[in-house]
Amino acid sequence: MVRDPFADDDSPALEDVLDALDDDDCRAIVSVLDEPMTASEISDESGVPLSTTYRKLEQLTEASLLYEGVELRPDGQHASRYAISFEDVVISLDDERAFEVEISRRPRTPDERLENLWSEVRKET
Predict the structure, then answer these.
(1) Where are the domains of the chain?
(2) What's the predicted TM-score (pTM) here?
């Protein structure tokens, strides 16, 4: 099933968010993402081995803490680029005293939304 690429209110599982935030490599990756970067660039900047970087990028993306866009290249060898997709993460108790997670996001630019759409199309083909 294709995820709605225009939805800005993904609600990840609490455990996914906590697992990502509790991981040293995930935190190292987030700390170097001042701008969108490829996995190789992230690996170089963070010091996390490339094979581990790919796994951690997937973990962070599943937790809705990063989004994956696509850098379109003239040679047809498009590259995934990752960027932080949150401003705040708040964990609270709801009325039934169950934990819930709320992720505050900055608005995505039209270019970022188009990148996200292209990324979702690539995943389905």
Answers:
(1) 14-124
(2) 0.73
Which residues share a beta bridge with 67? Answer: 83
pLDDT of 61 above 90: yes
Looking at domain 14-124, which CATH architecture does it have? Orthogonal Bundle (1.10)
What would the pLDDT profile of 63-81 be if each residue is shown by its tens digit? Answer: 999 988 887 767 877 788 9
Helix (H) / strand (E) containing 84: strand 79-84
**C-beta of residue 29 within 8 angstroms of C-beta of residue 46:** yes
Structure tokens at 61: 């993306």
**Residue 29: exposed, middle, or buried by beta-carbon count in 10 A (0-12, 13-18, 19+)?**
buried
Residues 6+ apart with CB under 8 A from 76: none
The gap from C-alpha 113 to its chain's centroid, in whole angstroms, comes to 13
